[in-house]
Amino acid sequence: MRDADRAPGDLAGGITREVLERDGIRTAFGVRHPDVALASDAALRDSIRHTLARRPDGAQATAGVWLFGYGSLLWNPCVAVAESRMARLYGFHRDFRLKLAYGRGSPEAPGLMLGLVPGGSCNGMTLRVSASDLEHELLMVWRREMLTGVYTPRWLTVRTSAGPVAAIAFVVNAAHPCHCRLDDTQVVHLLATGHGMIGSSADYLANTVAHLEAEGIHDGRLQTLHERVQRSRLSA
Q1: What pTM value is reported for the model?
Q2: Which residues are registered as beta bridge partners of 159?
Q3: What is each CA distance from 171 to 66, 69, 71, 110, 149, in whole angstroms?
Q4: In this structure, is the dihedral angle defined by the CA atoms of residues 162, 163, 166 and 172, taken in order, positive or negative?
Q5: Among the listed residues 222, 199, 5, 226, the one whose alpha carbon sits nearest the alpha carbon of residue 102
Q6: Structure confidence at residue 1 (pLDDT)
């Protein structure tokens, strides 16, 4: 079934470029979660322009913009990626700090999503979005990452094999009501049981671990969580 043929609110096929082009996540929220406050498309465009205006000196020579991928951007970017590099970000690490009752969670089965939080370091990928139609390409990213305000876009320096680059990274908005800090028993439970209009939290974790491993990036904590989630689901 094509995305365009699905009923409003049905994102069972996941987030795709077509979904983002038609602002389908917003439509789905209107059907499934009308009480959730969403940023307007105009506000998203203003945020993009504001972010680009704050581009650090080191990013001026880049043909386009680098994004730092640490979760679903790794395996489902939905934008034209001109170049990718393995990268390491110091000063932040990825963790399940967003408890959501929408997306890959629901009021009946809340789920968890990854975000960058202060401390440590994070291995991932830098993805270069080309300068061609840059604001529109970034709008596709903003429509998936910035719609509910759980993240803040930050320019951060990441280390790559070809040298440091300034990249946009989506950092957890600690002031957002979805921000949480849970022990691993709670994390495993929510990852094993959370599901919503986009899919399950368990699949999100599995896809992230699989793509990291395919790129030669081993995240011990995510791998341990993945194994515990699998055991929990098998025993349920």
Answers
A1: 0.93
A2: 88, 164
A3: 15, 11, 12, 21, 11
A4: positive
A5: 199
A6: 45
pLDDT of residue 7: 52
Q: Residue 101 and residue 168: Cα distance in Å, rounded?
A: 26
CB 140 within 8 A of CB 20: yes
Buried-state track 22-48, b at ≥16 Cβ within 10 A, e below 16: eebbbebbeebbeebebbeeeebbebb
Domains of the chain by residue range: 3-235
Average pLDDT over residues 209-221: 94
The single residue of 18, 108, 137, 145 carrying the catalytic annotation is 145
Cα–Cα distance for residue pair 187/45, rounded to 1 Å: 34
Residue 213 bears catalytic tag: no
What DSSP line would sit under the chain, residue for residue? --GGGSPTT--TT---HHHHHTTHHHHHHHHH-TTS----HHHHHHHHHHHHHT--GGGTTSSSEEEEESSHHHH---S-EEEEEEEEEEEEEEEEEEEESSSS--SSS-EEEEEEEEEEEEEEEEEEEPSTTHHHHHHHHHHHHSSSS-EEEEEEEEEETTEEEEEEEEEE-TTSTTB----HHHHHHHHHH-B-SS-BHHHHHHHHHHHHHHTT---HHHHHHHHHHHHHHHH-
If one looks up domain 3-235 in CATH, what number appears?
3.10.490.10
Enter the tokens of residue 212: 């990291």
Phi/psi at 173 (nearest 5 deg)?
-85, 100
